């Protein structure tokens, strides 16, 4: 394990941390858990399906002009949410490629968060959406970045007792979702004080741009019917804007948690390609963070490209300690 972590107290003492915290204001969502709106409420979202019967996991499906089909989200509420009257920090948890909004429920998010005072929001991000607005699409809009940042985030804060400030939000993800988390944390600096990448790539131009080529190929095949996330030739400005190793200063004063596997399955080319790129890219990222004096916590773990429950639990512990306490 490599550990160069800032404390929340130290971050608040720095001018950059204070500016980031103040830049988005301090506020809360609704005082009660009122049912979410059934029609477009100003965020461009219309609920077309919902289930609020589970005591913790609430489900919604939306129509939105940003996505050409109706994406869904699971919102996991903390134990005691309905009786506490408290406002809670929020984790936006992003799934990997060929996964969807229910993946983390299948993996064990309910058990991982039991007793932790945290709302967890798990949205669809497309099978190969790459948490981006694609350069080209042949199937209508697939603007995942716009959907998540401009619509879903304010909708959550309007409909749940959720903090709406810098120290009230974290973003984390696995694989493609880890890349999305690193990207969102950098591009929207004042939105998230904590970012985590579980087997998430952190360097997109290395190895002749292997990650960008993979994003283009996978999005063309799985989501965009021949369209691509980054364009052919690449939209270089967009690649730079999304590339963690080119956005170092955007991670200053944040909690950063990185996990990479050291021994992918040699009989599985997919596992080997993914985790080899992840490990090399995270090492490059960490070296640059070291050079810039930016703190982080990093783990290199046995195995390949998968979610490690013990690392998720460690990450959640760190998040809860760094985010604003429920209150």
Automatic annotation (TrEMBL):
<feature type="signal peptide">
    <location>
        <begin position="1"/>
        <end position="38"/>
    </location>
</feature>
<dbReference type="InterPro" id="IPR006311">
    <property type="entry name" value="TAT_signal"/>
</dbReference>
<dbReference type="InterPro" id="IPR000801">
    <property type="entry name" value="Esterase-like"/>
</dbReference>
<protein>
    <recommendedName>
        <fullName>Acyl-CoA:diacylglycerol acyltransferase</fullName>
        <ecNumber>2.3.1.122</ecNumber>
        <ecNumber>2.3.1.20</ecNumber>
    </recommendedName>
</protein>
<comment type="similarity">
    <text>Belongs to the mycobacterial A85 antigen family.</text>
</comment>
<keyword id="KW-0732">Signal</keyword>
<dbReference type="Pfam" id="PF00756">
    <property type="entry name" value="Esterase"/>
</dbReference>
<dbReference type="InterPro" id="IPR050583">
    <property type="entry name" value="Mycobacterial_A85_antigen"/>
</dbReference>
<dbReference type="InterPro" id="IPR029058">
    <property type="entry name" value="AB_hydrolase_fold"/>
</dbReference>
<keyword id="KW-0012">Acyltransferase</keyword>
<keyword id="KW-0808">Transferase</keyword>
């Amino acid at each position: 394990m490599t550990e160069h972590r800032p404390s929340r107290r130290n971050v608040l003492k720095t001018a950059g941390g204070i500016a980031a915290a103040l830049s988005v204001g301090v506020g809360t969502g609704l005082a009660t858990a009122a049912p979410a709106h059934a029609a477009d409420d100003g965020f461009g979202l219309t609920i077309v399906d919902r289930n609020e019967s589970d005591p913790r996991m609430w489900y919604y499906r939306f129509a939105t002009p940003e996505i050409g089909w109706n994406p869904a989200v699971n919102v996991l509420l903390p134990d005691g949410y309905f009786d506490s009257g408290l406002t809670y920090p929020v984790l936006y948890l992003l799934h990997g490629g060929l996964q969807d909004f229910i993946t983390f429920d299948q993996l064990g998010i309910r058990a991982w968060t039991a007793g932790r005072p945290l709302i967890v929001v798990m949205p669809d991000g497309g099978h190969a959406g790459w948490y981006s607005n694609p350069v080209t699409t042949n199937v209508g809009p697939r603007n995942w970045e716009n959907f998540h940042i401009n619509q879903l985030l304010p909708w959550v804060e309007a409909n749940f007792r959720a903090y709406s400030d810098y120290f009230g939000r974290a973003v984390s993800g696995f694989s493609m979702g880890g890349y999305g988390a690193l990207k969102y944390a950098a591009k929207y600096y004042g939105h998230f004080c904590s970012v985590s990448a579980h087997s998430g790539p952190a360097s997109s131009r290395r190895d002749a741009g292997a990650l960008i080529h993979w994003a283009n190929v996978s999005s063309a095949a799985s989501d965009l019917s021949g369209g691509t996330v980054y364009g052919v030739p690449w939209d270089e400005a967009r690649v730079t804007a999304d590339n963690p190793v080119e956005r170092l200063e955007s991670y200053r004063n944040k909690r950063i948690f990185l996990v990479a596997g050291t021994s992918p399955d040699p009989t599985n080319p997919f596992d080997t390609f993914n985790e080899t790129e992840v490990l090399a890219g995270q090492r490059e990222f960490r070296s640059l963070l070291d050079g810039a004096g930016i703190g982080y916590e990093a783990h290199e773990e046995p195995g390949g490209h998968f979610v490690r429950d013990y690392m998720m639990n460690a990450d959640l512990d760190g998040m809860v300690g760094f985010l604003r306490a429920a209150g």
